[in-house]
Amino acid sequence: MGNDIKELNLELNRLYKRQDDLYHAYASHYGLSVTSFWILYALCGTEETYTQNMLAKMWHLPSQSINSAISSLVKAGYVKLEQLAVARNNKAVRLTQEGEIFCRKVISSFYELEERVLEKMSAEERALFLALSQKQYALLKTEIEAVLHNH
Length: 151
What we know:
This protein is mainly α. The protein has 6 helices and 3 strands.
């Protein structure tokens, strides 16, 4: 049993890595880093106001990675930073007109691609996939927190 679990774990981790590679390939095809892709993914098609800190927390990425990616996106003309009236040290990250056009082409197409993938699963498969993914994450989090707490 133990060896089967070890093999299953290795295969799942290889699968997660291959999935990450797919996101990287899509982003790279359009000249984006994966971090820039996730920033645009969050900004595209929403009226929400996001700061760099909010984006870092949303995507579980270091602030430095987010800041670097935003600098690249500003240079590319896709996003701009706007001063927030409420928090003077936080700036809103907003799409420019060019960024909105790029998002419609690249990010909206990706949303549709993801939706097509999920539509190819039955409602039961989608629910089970989500439930098992959430359960695996919760169990892994509990185990890792226990190790970190005890050492």
